[in-house]
Amino acid sequence: MATEPASRSEAMSRGPGRRPGSADTRGEILTAARRVFAEKGFDKATVRGIAREASVDPALVHHYFATKEGIFAAAMRLPLSPETILPELLEGPREEVGERLVRLLLRVTAAPETREPMVALLRSAMTNERAQGMFREFMTNALLFKVADRLGVPHLRIEAAFAQMFGVVMARYVLKLEPMASADPEELVALLAPTLQRYFTG
Amino acid sequence: MATEPASRSEAMSRGPGRRPGSADTRGEILTAARRVFAEKGFDKATVRGIAREASVDPALVHHYFATKEGIFAAAMRLPLSPETILPELLEGPREEVGERLVRLLLRVTAAPETREPMVALLRSAMTNERAQGMFREFMTNALLFKVADRLGVPHLRIEAAFAQMFGVVMARYVLKLEPMASADPEELVALLAPTLQRYFTG
């Protein structure tokens, strides 16, 4: 590739013990992944197709990102992959899953560096048709339905829970409605956890 | 005022018994109002300031739109003014206010011609700083806090209710998450009304 030498030297600066080129290969896979997700959406994109687009072996893609969900999260610069969120949410008493979800989302959205990429994805999903399709497929198939199916919750109920927290994140951080924007996280947990718990346990 | 004769002559075209001129005066007031709201935000804009910007008498602005809330709704092409929504919401048994709110919002958002201007305002509030300030002030001071104060509900709770329904409208009509997008309105009422009712009655 024409750009490899430049990228290789960049790769080197990433840290000791790395062989030249590997940081850049990662970047090239992500660039290819963004193209493939934009063209095919999340559901139809495959690790193999992304590898082909990046001219690398699929095994290398798996090596860097483990799963398609992992590639998507990295390509969209999301701070967390479903694989790291879901266990935290699903482990623990069933009657506290609402509270765990509120705490998890408030923690993840509290720091600008983890919040901003998520808000950027939501914003583009609301204004751009292609981003919308990708977001919809990822959100439902990689996140919401996985949680719902694991907990035996109907899909409509998990989407009602998603809608509540999507609205809270928007009202608190994007629209900055007061008193929501400055509310103490514990107050929000007390207010919102019972709502989510009701959706999860009926 | 300089433009009054012209505006007066257009008023006539609006219907029998009306003198020509007012339809255009109305349009000029709305154009002026959009400028004033964009510059000053909702709270600091005044009927007097909008009248001055449109070079008409404040009484004429009141004649067309009754209140600042009414001007804002018309200027943003909102299908409903707070004055028409609030009585419908507040009248009736207190223990059914959650259900009334869900029904009202589902009805208003079901038809594209009433939904689209609302979604457009929400979209621009999420992507444009100025629209955000206007939206925030209008949403809290002209709608949410009025309902909250009338019902004696803390402002944070009314914003949690807003967040739930904002999320539902986005998930159903903008992101088009299934099964939410195709869900029967009665199913949504049964699912969401208890959430809102809890925010309203604690």
How would you describe this structure to a colleague?
Two copies of one chain form a homodimer. The first copy, chain A, is mostly helical and 202 residues long. The first copy, chain A, has helices at residues 4-12, 22-44, 47-54, 58-65, 68-75, 82-90, 97-110, 112-127, 129-151, 155-174, 185-201. Chain A folds into two domains: 4-75, Arc Repressor Mutant, subunit A, CATH 1.10.10; 82-201, Tetracycline Repressor, domain 2, CATH 1.10.357.10. Chain A contains eleven helices and no strands. In chain A, helix 2 (22-44) packs across helix 5, helix 6 runs parallel beside helix 9 (129-151) and helix 7 (97-110) packs across helix 11 (185-201). The longest helix of chain A is centred in the first third of the chain and has 23 residues, at 22-44. Chain A is globular. The model of chain A is unreliable at 1-21 (pLDDT under 50). The A-B interface holds A 123, 125-127, 132, 135-136, 139-140, 144, 155-157, 159-160, 162-168, 170-171, 174-180, 183, 187, 191-192, 194-195, 198-199 and B 123, 125-127, 132, 135-136, 139-140, 144, 155-157, 159-160, 162-168, 170-171, 174-180, 183, 187, 191-192, 194-195, 198-199.
Could you list some keywords that capture this structure?
homodimer, mainly alpha, Tetracycline Repressor, domain 2, 2 domains, disordered N terminus, transcription cis-regulatory region binding (chains A, B), DNA-binding (chains A, B), Tet_transcr_reg_TetR-rel_C_sf (chains A, B), DNA-binding transcription factor activity (chains A, B), HTH-type_TetR-like_transc_reg (chains A, B)
